[in-house]
Amino acid sequence: MLRLTELKLPLDHPPEALRAAILTRLELANDELVGFSIFKRSHDARKKHALLLVYAVDVEVRNEAALLKTFRNDRHLAPTPDMAYPFVGHAPDDLTERPLVVGFGPCGIFAALVLAQMGFRPIVLERGRAVRERTQDTWGLWRKHVLNPESNVQFGEGGAGTFSDGKLYSHIKDPRHLGRKVLTEFVKAGAPEEILYVSKPHIGTFRLVGMVETMRHEIEALGGEIRFQQRVTDVLIENGRIEGVTLAGGETLRSHHVVLALGHSARDTFEMLHARGVTMEAKPFSIGFRIEHPQSLIDQARLGPKAGNPLLGAADYKLVHHAKNGRSVYSFCMCPGGTVVAAASEPGRVVTNGMSQYSRNERNANAGIVVGITPADYPGGVLAGIELQRKLEARAFELGGGNYDAPAQRVGDFLEGRPSTQLGSVEPSYKPGVHLTDLASCLPDYAIEAIREALPAFDQQIKGFAMADAVLTGVETRTSSPVRITRGGDYQSLNVKGLYPAGEGAGYAGGILSAGVDGIKVAEAVARDMLGLEAADSGGKAGPACDY
To answer: Which pTM value belongs to this model?
Structure first.
């Protein structure tokens, strides 16, 4: 097979036009093209009145070698890479030790799945509840102002990504095509096949719920075990090696291989690990607000006369501004046609996030507008970032009225520095509700200053972005983990052998896809160590702050 890229066709082209374009581009007769499949489809919206679809296709031809020779200087034609996933090995039948996986978000799911597929029968320990029970608990906050600290948007089967837009794209380098393994497993679990080829695939919350259950059942069918409502309260370390974990109920589970797929909000677990001397460091993250506009405004600005075309769906955006005070302001986790959701995991605090369903057909678009900060902004030790998050979230709780309503403000009022007293044309989607106020005291002065400068700058790129009636809702603090549990090239903790920090909570991923990829890598590292094989590529490099 050969991969042909940058094949452009009009948005409204008939199906047969793609084959014709391949024949023309490669100068082939019809019978010389045996077949083709779409590898990737995106769109080029730089000219809104002549928007194009851009394809990458895998083609099968009669004489591949001759075609490659003819187009040897064409960088858009090359052999199709082998994207099949090779397992590093398989557990022997007499293997008695079982690896432990702490956390069952995207990283933990794929770590457990790949370990189970290799025959290692992992035991998964998830502090929250199974996904359907967890959904009910989450609705308890959204509908009744009742927070369950152990089962919410952050904790439970599927992790924080379950209540999100379900984005499945990333900026990570992936020379081994592990992202393809993630997407393929999602399709097996019930995701639409289009996620294998559309340029920015997403699933949405409702579909993710069923997929997560299906993947859990596969792990169990392969000998794995998933234990819900099992919070790890201690790690057993002897002579620099992990020996097992202790659960909140007092039970001890022994293993020399423990994967920490915690997620970015497992603050009590971070504190426990720090107290036990596990090597950690403070890391940068971002803070800000959620902003909401009419989705129709974003569609028109991004797609022009093609807005509403079903092939394009609801339009998204990605914005960055470098403020005069040296701060970077950027859009984060943009959710087309979605809602702003309550994402708190601790009592007395308010946190926002964004979520969409697969259809992306809600009236508003929302995104985080966040400011990058570094440990220099929160001196005081490894856990100082967590304390800053808690302080900002507690202030948001207070400004929201002390009942899990979120503080909110119209953009026009925010830019003018006055409290909002009434809404305009944009109705905020946050549930349980919002309390209009002045958001200036929700964030440090430097962040407020930078966001006030950024919004009019973003309006130059998307007309109407700084519209007076757009709504800001506070606060967005869980953009990424505020700590990194450092690991070496063997994916193990720098000072505790057998402990494998993984995924977003450990500082090595930033979204569903990159977390899943990291889970696969860590599962492979565990398998290699258990089988006595030589370690593979380095796991010491940190992942991006976010996939989006």
So the answer is: 0.94
